[in-house]
Give the backbone structure.
Amino acid sequence: MVKNDRRNDDECNDELTEEEEIVAEVSQTEKIKQLRAKLKESETKRLQELENLQRSKADFLNAKRRLEEEKSTIRSSEEVRLAVQLFPLLDSFAQAKADEKIWGSVDKSWRDGFLAIENQLRSILTAMNITEVEALNEHFDPNIHEAVGTKSSDHEPEVVLEVVQTGYMKGDKVLRPAKVIISE
């Protein structure tokens, strides 16, 4: 009987061990499921954070681009504002040279200095990409010319005969139209 009890005890121990193993396997399977769930959750969070980072980076780059564009626009506007203020000076230089008799009678060194200053002023405008409107002997274009008078001439109608005041452009934008006299 003692032998049977031992055998029954051994069988019980074996059964407990098998049950414990099953419980342990179930427990490990549950742990693996939990770890996989945590891993999946972590991966999802990582992807969301990566997406947020990419969105933030794109927002930053867009803001930087907008600021650069605004800065460029402001710079260009200020250049135009300055150039427009310089146009009357160029008009004065042209007026001073208009009377050839008086201009020829002025001391040569004074004329050379005068022309050097005018060239410096023109180089400032050139650096700003500001050019003179082509007008003399051109067909009248109301987009870049302003007719202030007409004259009869041998030319075909609406050809610029004289430039009363030089016009200026920055790229394709007219800053001041050329005031001209055209043929009838």
